[in-house]
Design goal:
By secondary structure, the protein is α+β, with helices and mostly antiparallel strands. The chain is 14% helix and 17% strand.
């Protein structure tokens, strides 16, 4: 499968994203494989990932 992966966590920018060919691993009986056509993140998620907004922990 072809995947887009973030090469360095916590450093979110387009030059850190790379296409990677991944081998599909065998699934256990309680697992499923899904195909994602599109995804989105809200701006707050990006701000937390880049450190602009501190992450909050739930009690």
């Amino acid at each position: 499968m072809i995947a887009t992966q973030l090469e360095e966590p916590w450093l979110v920018s387009t030059d850190r994203l790379a296409l990677a060919v991944r081998r599909e691993s065998e699934l256990d009986v309680d697992q499923v494989l899904i195909e994602v056509d599109a995804c989105a993140m809200c701006r707050t998620d990006l701000q937390i990932a880049t450190g602009d907004v501190p992450a909050h922990r739930l009690p």
